[in-house]
Specification:
By secondary structure, the chain is mostly helical. The chain has helices at 2-30, 35-38, 42-65.
Length: 71
């Protein structure tokens, strides 16, 4: 499961980066971009927060449970 969350985290980071780039391009083109472009990075950012926290805590949780290293 950790592998799939890591892969999901990587792909969501690409989506987040593209949404931020689109935001800057829209700002350069229109000045104030439409609301859907402005708020489009928020969903990938929230997903990155949760998957990143999971990946951050994973090695500590494995150690707390007495298992082997997750890295």
């Amino acid at each position: 499961m950790s592998y799939w969350i890591r892969q999901f985290h990587r792909w969501v980071s690409i989506a987040f980066t593209l949404a931020v780039i689109a935001n800057f391009v829209a700002m350069a083109k229109w000045g104030t971009p439409p609301a859907w472009i402005t708020y489009s990075p928020l969903l990938p950012l929230a997903l990155l927060l949760f998957t990143g926290l999971y990946l951050f805590v994973l090695p500590y949780a494995v150690r707390w449970r007495g298992g082997r290293s997750a890295a």
